[in-house]
Amino acid sequence: MINSRSHRRFIFSVAILAVAAGIAGCATTDRTTTGSIAPDSAGTAVPSGNFDQMNEQQLMQASTGLGTRYQANPKDKTTAMKFATVLRMTGRSDQALAVMRSLAIAYPQDREVLAAYGKALASSGEFEAALDALRRAQTPEYPDWKLLSAQGAILDQLGKTSEARDLYRQALQINANEASILSNMGMSYVLSGELNTAESYMRKAVTAPGSDSRVRQNLALVIGLQGRFDEAETIAKQELSPQQAQANVRYLRSMLAQQNSWNMLKDKSKPKS
């Protein structure tokens, strides 16, 4: 049996990589959305469209154009935030963090900049600093549900499950039935191995406003983790090509076969007497 820290590391690696295995292009994980693959909300692509709709070549072209504009004026907030987003999506998290750190110095009181800086810190694994930036971006009298959910996702990765779920509940009080919050809550239960509860939240998330491909892929992941591979593949095929969906399921099978992981997950999922 693996210890609890190894268990969390295993589950998180599955939650990230099993989805990533089926993603076309070159996207990196946004650790403020537990287990999903996504950019932040720092703007739209250049010249039009969303970054998460772009393929690898389009992202690289956007990166080149934004890089030129950023060099011309590093304090242009909109350009810098978009540039940092594309850098993270193309695997250059350290460079993205450097861009956002400079911007945070230029705009130390700007909530939008602090929020994006927090996400950049989280993407680079600097979780404590990310939490500090997100908390400074938050306004207690008018809390932002997106920031609450982002903080929760980081706390989940630090093993502070109870605190994370409290924040998700606060976020749901502000924006009830929001898909991304429900998905984060579901992935929180995946990280603790409570797969039945995780599936319940994921099924709510996929029918909630704002649900997208990433949320549905997370549902497929949770079902696959319970060994229902055919069902997981059927759901994944709605979002991915058949080859990508099969690759995800193969990855899940191989991961669950390691270190007695499948028995561990079944034990974790059983209700406690």
UniProtKB/TrEMBL annotation:
Record InterPro entries: O-mannosyl-transferase_TMTC, TPR-4, TPR-like_helical_dom_sf, TPR_rpt, UCP035836
Signal peptide positions (record): 1-20
Keywords: Repeat, Signal, TPR repeat
Annotated Gene3D superfamilies: Tetratricopeptide repeat domain (1.25.40.10)
UniProt record, GO biological process: endoplasmic reticulum unfolded protein response; protein O-linked glycosylation via mannose
Per-repeat ranges for TPR: 145-178
Keyword Cell membrane: no
Origin superkingdom: Bacteria
Any one GO molecular function term: identical protein binding
Pfam family for this entry, one: TPR_4
Protein name in the entry: Pilus assembly protein TadD
Phylogenetic lineage: Bacteria, Pseudomonadati, Pseudomonadota, Alphaproteobacteria, Hyphomicrobiales
